Please model this.
Amino acid sequence: MAGNRPGADAVAKCDYCSTTILFGGVRDGNARYCNQRCHQFGWLLARCNDLPDELVDEQVLNVHGGPCPRCKGPGPIDVHTAYRVWSLIVITATQNDPQVCCRSCGRKRQLGGFVFSLLAGWWGFPAGLIITPITLTRNVMAMFGGPSPDLPSTQLEQAVRMQIGAAIASSQRDSAAAPPTAQPLRSTASR
Ligand SMILES: [Zn+2]
Ligand SMILES: [Zn+2]
Model:
């Protein structure tokens, strides 16, 4: 509870999404978040890194060798990211869309991202003209490259950690009827 640092509020950034917090936000010890949603994700992420490796590894292998959560087809399952960009005159916005799915589902989304960006990416100056070819290339590289089918990627491990953490958090929330706010539930015991 040594969180009294006057002046730290002047340019606060969200500890989860790095958005600059102009006013308000959520405080948790020394951490600041722009809203409740970021607070919960940030809290979850910190907790997930404390999960025992054996538990995570086993679950990662289960997911990697299991059926695709999207099409129920055969694995291997991993994180496949599609990339999108759109522009409107002076605005150019990009979006990375990682999904836990099979390669075939991943390729469909990446093809979708490619076509979307090909149509919507160019219409901003100058960023659209620079970022659109980069985004198209990233989709093509992801379609033909992507994670190795033999081994779960670290991205998959992180996604599985988040999943386990979310499941634990929601079961604890249900039983304790308390929101996962300022109190990390068991992490003080390990210090
Ligand atoms: Zn945030
Ligand atoms: Zn699939």
Q: What stands out?
A: Residues 14, 16-17, 19, 33-34, 38 surround zinc ion (ligand 1) (CB under 6 Å).
